[in-house]
Structures are given as structure tokens and as C-alpha cells.
Amino acid sequence: MKKKSASGENLFRALSVGLAVVTGAVASALSFLSLDVSSAVLRTLITAAFILVAFFIQLIIHEAGHLVFGLLTGYSFSSFRILSFMLKKEDGRIVLRKLNLSGTAGQCLMGPPEPVDGRVPYVLYNLGGVLMNLISAALSVFICLLLGTGVRGWYFFAVLAVVGIYLALTNGIPSGMGAVPNDGYNAAHLGKDPEAVDSFWKQLKISQQQGEGIRLKDMPDEWFSLREGADLKNPLIAAIAVFGENRAMDSKDFEKAGERIRLLCSEEVSIAPLYRALLVNDAVFLEVLEKGGEADLSAIREKDTAAILKQMRAFPSVIRTEYAVAALAENDRAKADSAMTAFEKTAKSYPNPIEIESERELIGLVRKETASDT
């Protein structure tokens, strides 16, 4: 099972890299038709700059697609993120926050409409970004044809079209092998299992409530429940179990959190690598809290997990575990103080203050342990 998952992930990575290479090659080839530059180095730099700018524009277009098609199908705005910058609805106004999620360049989260006869519209919301990339690529090609190759600006629209197609393919070809399942995977698999649609609705509803200042422990129990024998090989369904673990941590029910972690990290369950890494992060925190210097830290130092956690180093729960390891396992006061400085910096701009509140309580448990040891 693990080998199959790893081979699938490698295949998706190879496809993404291949598409990126093709995108770069096409953009470079088009530069010879438009850029009147003799220096190969300068031509390459200009091409690279155009690709980066086009990628940023198409990223905004992609997330705007989720927003537009979501609004058209009854969803309500929650947040809109490009890179680490997030616009979030808070107390009836839009505020700027910061959040960096490994494996995601952007994200548009929306509150879902209430189910009607057990049905929730999901296709247009999930594929809205892909559709907007394709529409913008088609418009860019049309503009290129109008301008002609001899007109300044032709090349930029050509690159914009190529990058739009690249994003449409990498997000539209179904894959659950990235850091999180992509849009195409969600749209394709939600239609196969009504329970997956229910789980999708719950995920969005939970995220919406968090954004409105409600802690996981205070949300309805049924949002975190799964029927006996639920298909945990479906990452959309397994994600609810992940939220259940998060809720157990928020409630300080560490026994239940440990049970969820062991279940979700087993080979019988399929969850996104990002979720798995954060679960391992929680598992190490619990072990350090219980065993102190005798805790086994190897799990967070495993190559793939360590790589994801490094990218998520500004995430509150990751900093909390870093603090616990430094304070209780390594007895490194300077490292612990550094972790707390990083935590306070993150807390100032983090989008969900209630998560910061929960993490402070967990950090407080670590401080009690350090105090009892002195």
C-alpha cells in the first residue's frame, strides 16, 4: 500500500515537472518570434521574468475562479489566499492575514450552502479555477492573434496562455498524491461517494466556523463523526478523521488524539502528506509531554516529514512542538525561547486567533512540566 502510494506520488511529481519543462520550452521557443534580443542570457532572463509574472497572474485568476463559481452556486466568502497573503472575512470586514501552507500556492475557502435532499453543489466550485485558467488562456491566444507577432506585448499574452494551460492541467488532472488532493481529484471523486460529499461539506463548514472564531471543541459532534466502516482510503473522508484528531487536541483529550493518530498513520488510511506530517508533529508533542527526555523524536526527523514540517515552520502547531522538544526533550532553553519568539511573531498575523488560543494552552502544559522539573 505504501509502495503504491509512493509510486503514485512520484508519477504525479514527474508529470508536474514534465509539464513545467514543456511550459518553459514553449515559452522559450516563442521568445525567438517576439523578443528582439541578441544575448541568450538576457533572453533567458526576460523569458523567466515573463513566466513568473504570468504564473502570479494566472494564480490569482485560478483562485478567483473558485470564488466566482462558488458564489454562483450558493457558497459564501471566507478567505482568499495568494502565496502567504490572505484576505479574510472577519467580523463583517475584510482583513489581511498571513498563512503559508506547504504544497499550496493559493487557496479560496468558502462557506458551503446547506444541503438540499442530501446534495451539495461541488463541481463548479472545485473546477472553477481550472475553468478560469482555460478561459484566460483562450482570451490570451485571441489577443495574440489580434496583435500579431510584430506588436509589442504579443509575447506576454502568449506566455500567459501557456502558463494558464499548465495550471489548468496540473490542477485539473485528478491527483491525490500532492501535499493535498487537487481540484480535479475532488471533483472526480466526490461524485462517486455520497459520504465523500458529506465530508467535503463538513470540512468547509468547520473551516468557516474556525474563521468566525469558534473552536473545534465547541462545534457539533456530528461534524466530526464517521460511520462504522467508513472508507478511510478516500482522503476526502479521512480528512474528517484528521479534524477529529485536531478537535481532540483542542479538547486536551490526548488519549483520543493518540488513537486517531495511530489510525490515520496506518497503511489502511489514505491522507494527504501535509496532514500526515502534522499528525506526526502532534504525536511527537504528546510523547515529549509524557516522556520528556526519553521521547523518541525520530518520526519528525524522517526525510519526507521533516521536509514538509520545514516548509510549515511558521505554523502554530509546528512551533508548539518545536518548543516542547527544546524545553522538555533537549533541555535547550535558548532554543525554546527562540521557538516562543517565532510563535509570538506568527500569532500577530495568523488568520485564526482561536487556533493561537488553543496552542497557547498546549504550550502552557509544557511550561507546567518544565516548572515541575525545577
Characterize the largest beta sheet: strand count, sense, and whether it forms a barrel. 4 strands, antiparallel
Give the strand order, joined by hyphens, for the main sheet: 3-2-1-4
Secondary-structure content class? alpha+beta
Low-confidence segments = 1-8
What form results from the Cα inertia axes?
globular
Count of all domains: 2
Which bin fits the share of residues in helices? Answer: 55-70%
DSSP helical segment count: 14
SSE topology string: HHEEEEHHHHHHHHHHHH
Structural commentary:
The chain has 374 residues and is an alpha+beta fold. The chain folds into two domains: 175 residues, no CATH class; 185 residues, no CATH class. The chain is 66% helix and 7% strand. The protein contains 14 helices and four strands. Strands 3-2-1-4 form a four-stranded antiparallel beta sheet, with helices on both faces. A hairpin with a 2-residue loop joins strand 2 and strand 3. The termini are far apart.
Structural key phrases:
14 helices; four-stranded antiparallel β-sheet; disordered N terminus; 374 residues; 2 domains
